[in-house]
């Protein structure tokens, strides 16, 4: 099966900050690293019905973030409740577990609170509730995000390291979409898909000699086996057979499928993430061509091989 990448991963298994921690470096100054974003504008906020005062979403994908609640003055008997919400698309938000701040009352309305966001979503915001009386407060998000050329290099090394780990293990790590092409339907009653961790089969299409394309119907014309971490399969239902038309001469059969451990860095096994850091460190420390010599030259990192070995997909 020939394959072409349709949609690449939107996040890497190792973030820039995690890679920098592994390398024991900080490529930027404090001022370059930190950006403060206003979430809920500071000011006097009236009484609300529930958590209906929403802050502006802030992109924290692959970054470290601190959320600040900055109270100034509560009205008489007024209270403020604030919680952190998270989202994949900056549209649909859900409460982040552990993201609720201590309630602000008149007794603590000058105490600044902070919480580190340790979730895996792309966006966060605050949702606030003000009861009894108007209260003065605001929320903000402090994001550690590198901006200089050294960070561009480190990000490129992370991607290269992930791709190398994928090549070695022969599997997809973070969610990605592929098109697989076949010249003909197989003699056996199944089609095996590469890269493991099959999440879904979007479509199976085939073209006849005139170039007319037909889309096969799932459950009636084929079934999908996800098969966990192993290779997924497309299987014929009982009593069915593959289409018998004479097929188009160039890439007549197209199978679009999504595979990978998941959408978040933490979905990837720790051993693979550790290997990616080691591969990236080797690329960072040794930026020139590496050669093997018998007199103490470059020595292959066996730890990487051991970490990735049990995750390699084998063909039988």
Structure description:
The protein has five helices and 17 strands. It has 316 residues and is of the alpha+beta class. It has a five-stranded antiparallel beta sheet with strand order 1-11-17-13-14, with no helix packed on it. A hairpin with a 7-residue loop joins β15 (223-225) and β16. α3 (149-169) packs across α4 and α4 (270-285) packs antiparallel against α5 (302-309). The chain is globular and about 80 Å long. The model has no long low-confidence stretch (mean pLDDT 91).
Keywords:
single chain; 316 residues; alpha+beta; Jelly Rolls; 5-stranded antiparallel beta sheet; 5 helices; globular
Quick take:
This protein is 18% helix and 34% strand.
Q: Can you identify the CATH class of the domain at 29-144?
A: Mainly Beta
**Fraction in helix:** 10-25%
Q: So what's the overall shape?
A: globular
Strand order of the largest sheet: 1-11-17-13-14
Q: Kindly name the structural category.
A: alpha+beta
Identify the CATH architecture of the domain at 29-144. Sandwich
Q: What can be said about the biggest beta sheet?
A: 5 strands, antiparallel
- Number of E-state strands: 17
Distance between the termini: 15 Å
What is the H/E order?
Answer: EHHEEEEEEEEEHEEEEEEEHH
Count of DSSP helices?
Answer: 5
The CATH topology of the domain at 29-144 is given as Jelly Rolls
């Amino acid at each position: 099966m020939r394959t072409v990448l349709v949609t690449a991963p939107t996040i890497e298994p190792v973030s820039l900050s995690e890679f920098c921690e592994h390398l024991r470096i900080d490529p930027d100054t404090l001022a370059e690293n930190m950006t403060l974003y206003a979430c809920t504008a500071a000011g006097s906020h009236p009484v609300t019905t529930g958590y209906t005062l929403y802050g502006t979403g802030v992109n924290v994908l692959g970054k470290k973030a601190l959320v600040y609640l900055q109270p100034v003055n509560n009205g008489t008997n007024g209270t403020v409740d604030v919680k952190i919400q998270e989202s994949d698309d900056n549209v649909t938000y859900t409460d982040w577990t552990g993201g609720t701040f201590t309630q602000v009352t008149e007794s603590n309305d000058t105490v600044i609170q902070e919480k580190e966001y340790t979730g895996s979503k792309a966006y966060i915001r605050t949702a606030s509730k003000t009861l009894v009386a108007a209260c003065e407060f605001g929320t903000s998000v402090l994001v550690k995000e590198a901006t200089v050329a050294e960070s561009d290099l480190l990000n490129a090394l992370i991607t290269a390291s992930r791709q190398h780990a994928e090549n070695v293990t022969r599997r997809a790590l973070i969610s990605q979409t592929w098109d697989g092409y076949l010249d003909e339907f197989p003699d056996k009653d199944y089609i095996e898909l590469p890269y493991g961790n099959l999440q879904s089969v979007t479509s199976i299409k085939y073209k006849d000699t005139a170039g007319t394309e037909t889309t096969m119907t799932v459950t009636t014309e084929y079934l999908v086996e996800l098969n966990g971490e192993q290779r997924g399969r497309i299987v014929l239902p009982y009593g069915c057979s593959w289409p018998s038309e004479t097929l188009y001469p160039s890439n007549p059969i197209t199978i679009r499928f999504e595979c990978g451990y998941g959408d978040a860095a933490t979905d990837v096994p720790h051993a693979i993430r550790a290997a990616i850091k080691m591969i990236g460190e080797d690329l960072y420390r040794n930026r020139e061509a590496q050669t093997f010599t018998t007199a103490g030259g470059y020595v292959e990192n066996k730890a990487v091989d051991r970490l990735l070995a049990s995750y390699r997909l084998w063909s039988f």
